[in-house]
């Protein structure tokens, strides 16, 4: 009661108390907002984090011109030679896509001829021993780590005869063989002698493909993205066009490898129109592989047998 009487006597005091209460409430609110934003005004709560990681929606989009224009892409479709009707359809593809033919496929030679006549670049899809062997079998005519240098040379020559018009070679499986320096050196020596390039499918992070190719003077490139590691149209299209797939390779040639699944080829058709719109160019692998590394070329190669 005494406090109320004092307020009546001193209205100025009442005003000061009200202002003080309002200022206190404002400070408490601002401190809470500062905690929510991490202190710099950038929201960092659960809803904000969700917005940061939410993927871009499926559908047409433009690539940022300054990052994509002029980027070159090479595409290789593996495991060709099992279905000639499918090969005839693939031969109609307008883009300079290359095709890697399995030498042990029933229609390997015919597929290579059909694609060559259509102006397509051909690779020998060379079977090599995987770490999972024998659970996973690379197929007849594969290279194994138990083989001698002479056996490797003979097997490689045999497989090249099975796939005419091959301009280069890429490995089928081979997670174990691609880590075996002695055997891989023999392969690269033979490719250098025949003036063939090598594409590393990167089935192992410990591949010695680049090292042995440089030593032998073999033109070389390695796979950047597997198009259809997860099979399906949406997964393949995501690997082909989602911007985050390209950020680490700004301005560099990109090598993509896939398989002749209907979903993959459909996604590839969709992606090509977006690449063209963004000023990205599809090239054959022979234009992507660099010249032999002169630092190592000409040095005597180590002999292991």
Describe this structure in words.
This protein has 305 residues and is an alpha/beta fold. Helix content is 42%, strand content 14%. It has helices at residues 2-9, 11-36, 46-53, 65-68, 84-90, 108-117, 149-162, 181-194, 209-216, 233-241, 262-277, 285-288, and strands at residues 72-80, 98-101, 122-128, 166-173, 197-200, 220-222, 225-226, 254-258, 281-282. Strands 1, 2, 3, 4, 5, 6, 7, 8 and 9 form a 9-stranded parallel beta sheet that branches. The longest helix has 26 residues, at 11-36. The protein is globular and about 50 Å long. The N and C termini lie far apart (108 Å).
* Topology as a string of helices (H) and strands (E): HHHHEHEHEHEHEHEEHEHEH
Low-confidence runs (pLDDT<50, min 5 residues)?
27-66, 293-305
Largest sheet: 9 strands, parallel
Using the CA coordinates, give the radius of gyration.
30 Å
Strand content: 5-15%
Question: What's the tally of helices?
Answer: 12
Q: Decide which structural class fits the backbone.
A: alpha/beta
Number of strands: 9
- What does the average pLDDT come to? 80
Please tell me what the overall shape is.
globular
Distance between the amino and carboxyl termini: 108 Å
Helix content: 40-55%
